[in-house]
Amino acid sequence: MTQRIIYPTDDGGVAIIVPAESVEAAMKDIPAGKPYKIIDTADVPTDRTFRNAWEYSE
Amino acid sequence: MTTTIDGSAGVTTNAGGSVNPSTTIDGINYSCRAWVNFNGTGTVAIRASGNVSSITDNGTGDYTVNFTTAISDANYSYSVNNNGNYGVAQTYASSLNTSTPATLTEVAPTTTACRFTTNSSVAAFDPKYINVNVFR
User: HEC string of B61-76?
Assistant: First the structure.
């Protein structure tokens, strides 16, 4: 998959949904009421050293 | 062609006579309901899966597996195993049903998803090979 779905977590971080087949099929996995964005996989940092400090921005 | 051995237990054989273990025993089928093999580090990505619509990367060593078709109830059994980053089978404890490793908040599995953490002996950890199997 070349796209990811991101949404803010309750603790101020960001969750990243990795679809198995398609973004459309994974849309149901976004928690109800959460804002979200669909981004390119290439836009997700690969260095996860400070993964828990990542934030969601509008 | 299959032939029932005893006519009631549901264990069958193929034409060559070997037992087919994928069929039912006592009429109950304890099947794997979902499975996924994914990379938890670098570019997190699913290698292969069954009945999994997505995984959610919640943070370091903190993942959720989301099911395509819901499990019949939330009392299923799920196991997580992961190997080390260097291709060597290393053992890391998987703290099941927990979310943020620092606080170990319990997150109960649901019919549509299960969440877990992966940890080294000292901290949350992103393994390269993570395998999750769900049975019910």
Answer: CEEEEEECCCCCCCCC
Residue B100 in this model has a pLDDT that exceeds 70: no
pLDDT band at B87 (very low <50, low <70, confident <90, very high): very low
Q: Say if B50 is an interface residue toward chain A (CB within 8 Å).
A: no
Residue-level pLDDT at B71: 96
Q: Which residue of B has its CA nearest to A3?
A: B45
Alpha-carbon gap, residue A38 to A1, rounded angstroms: 12
CB contact under 8 A, A9 and B45: no
Tokens 């997505």, located at residue:
B54
Mutate to test the interface with B, among A39, A51, A54, A55 (most CBs of B within 10 A): A51
Instruction: Report yes or no for ipTM above 0.95.
Output: yes
| Mean pLDDT on A28-57 | 96
Any bridge partners for residue B29, and if so which?
Answer: none
Boundaries of every domain in chain B = 1-30, 33-135
